[in-house]
């Protein structure tokens, strides 16, 4: 097999493409031939030693991928060689083959391509868990999605619309805002040029959004929290903007608002039945055409450094997918 190995998590430049013996699956494991892998923000953090999960060295990054089962280990009965599957393994995707625990796999629907399979579960799983479970979103409520043109952002826009909400998509350029309109957003805000608080006030009649979906953090958090509706729910997804905000706690008191943490990875581990429920709902919406991964570009696996540079430079609308 061949893969991108991280021997020292000091950044993307330390990743090396090299050959290694193809491993054989042990009990409870599956050997997967990787057909497509997507790049997610945690894949950047993990090679910089900044992510919550720190795998033993050396490791192959790539948390989300899809492919074909080549072999199964002892005790694996849910999958067999030849099955098309998607994987949420935490790492291992940026290579030609990967060893994956069988409980980290799920069947790929016949109608779903490997590229869509590799770009689906992480962002859509995060967003449905955030909005419906943690955010208690109801039909008719207003959702503000920050970073709405990114991977989780585009998923959140589509899921909120599928759930019957009114969606305000906020992004950093007119081009990104136009894309958000195309995928279903009711209104958009370019927060690079507009006053975010004034725009939210105008678009909500002074009420503010009921639910805020925030994968950005940084300087946007406080003005948005000041704009949230009474009994609003502010969903903390991540900090792609680079900074972890420090909010005055009196803001939550004055608005009767909830500040809600969303840690999807641990949700999948701790509440597997809830994860399976969410994936069934997403599969139904996918079949109905209500959700569809937005693939910004498909690159060869050899261009991983370029893909990382595009992500860190905020040049990606939707998801980047890599293929062998």
Automatic annotation (TrEMBL):
Superkingdom in the source lineage: Bacteria
One Gene Ontology MF term: oxidoreductase activity
Keyword match Oxidoreductase: yes
Keyword tags: Oxidoreductase
UniProt EC number: 1.-.-.-
Pfam families reported in the protein's UniProt record: ADH_N, ADH_zinc_N
Record-annotated Enoyl reductase (ER) domain positions: 11-322
Xref: SUPFAM superfamilies: GroES-like (SSF50129), NAD(P)-binding Rossmann-fold domains (SSF51735)
InterPro entries, per database record: ADH-like_C (IPR013149), ADH-like_N (IPR013154), ER (IPR020843), GroES-like_sf (IPR011032), NAD(P)-bd_dom_sf (IPR036291), Quin_OxRdtase/zeta-crystal_CS (IPR002364), Zn-ADH-like_protein (IPR051397)
PANTHER family, A to Z: QUINONE OXIDOREDUCTASE-LIKE PROTEIN 2 (PTHR43677:SF4), SHORT-CHAIN DEHYDROGENASE/REDUCTASE (PTHR43677)
Protein name: NADPH:quinone oxidoreductase family protein
Source organism per UniProt: Pseudaquabacterium inlustre
Taxonomy of the source species: Bacteria, Pseudomonadati, Pseudomonadota, Betaproteobacteria, Burkholderiales
